[in-house]
Amino acid sequence: MCAHILVAEDDLRQATVIRRYLEHEGHTVVIVHDGGSAIDEARRHRPDLLVLDVMMPVVDGLQVCRVLRRESELAILMLTARNTEDDLLRGLGLGADDFMTKPYSVRELMARIRTLLRRARRTAEVEAEPAEETVLQVGALTMDAARHEVRLGARRIELTAGEFRLLSVMLAAPDRVFTRRQLLTHTRGANAFVTERTIDVHILNLRKKIEPVPRRPAYLLTVVGVGYKLTDGSGTADGPDSFRAEPRGER
What we know:
Number of helices: 8
Strand order of the largest sheet: 2-1-3-4-5
CATH class of the largest domain: Alpha Beta
Largest sheet: 5 strands, parallel
Distance between the termini: 33 Å
Pfam families: Response_reg (PF00072), Trans_reg_C (PF00486)
Order of helices and strands: EHEHEHEHEHEEEEHEHHEE
Protein name: DNA-binding response regulator
Keywords: DNA-binding, Phosphoprotein, Transcription, Transcription regulation, Two-component regulatory system
Helix content: 40-55%
CATH superfamily of the largest domain: Response regulator
GO molecular function: phosphorelay response regulator activity; transcription cis-regulatory region binding
Number of domains: 2
């Protein structure tokens, strides 16, 4: 599974280590040390995957992710030295596919890169096949998989790749209650290294985009102690349903 990988990392030592491991696995690697160069390189050579440090000079990693996600579905794995949820929430909200906090295990980083490359390759193979008319609808919410388009009534909803995958799973089984682990397995694969917190972030961002009142959702409902379900929008959750830690129960 040889790929063209762009690494945007201003720490020369870490960039060298990442390059050595990636080249050992047969990948072609380009290293840049600031965000502006990352944007230029990604536009010129269209890599298969971007390993992107958040804290970089000229243009930070979050802005790089924002710019490139508007232009393509490039797989993006973000790295941060700040062990806070702020970067996680913002990075995933901007469309990053995965997130790691420094210091990290290089072996785990390589495993996550392999997972992202496999998913990107599967997506490319599906897109190369003749498109089938696959339209899912629950209430006023409609998804056209062939056109990669989501609408709420007449209004088009712009989703990141992760949000689209998650919503497609739930649209295919309305009113079914999914645990976070089940949603991770459906959208990221059984061997994904991302945490269940990722699902909470995607649900939060989806609610901001499709719910009339995000804190009182009508479509994406929380089932306390279990997970989430998608309904036709005719009901409303009991009380505010903001992003918070909840009892998880069995998964």
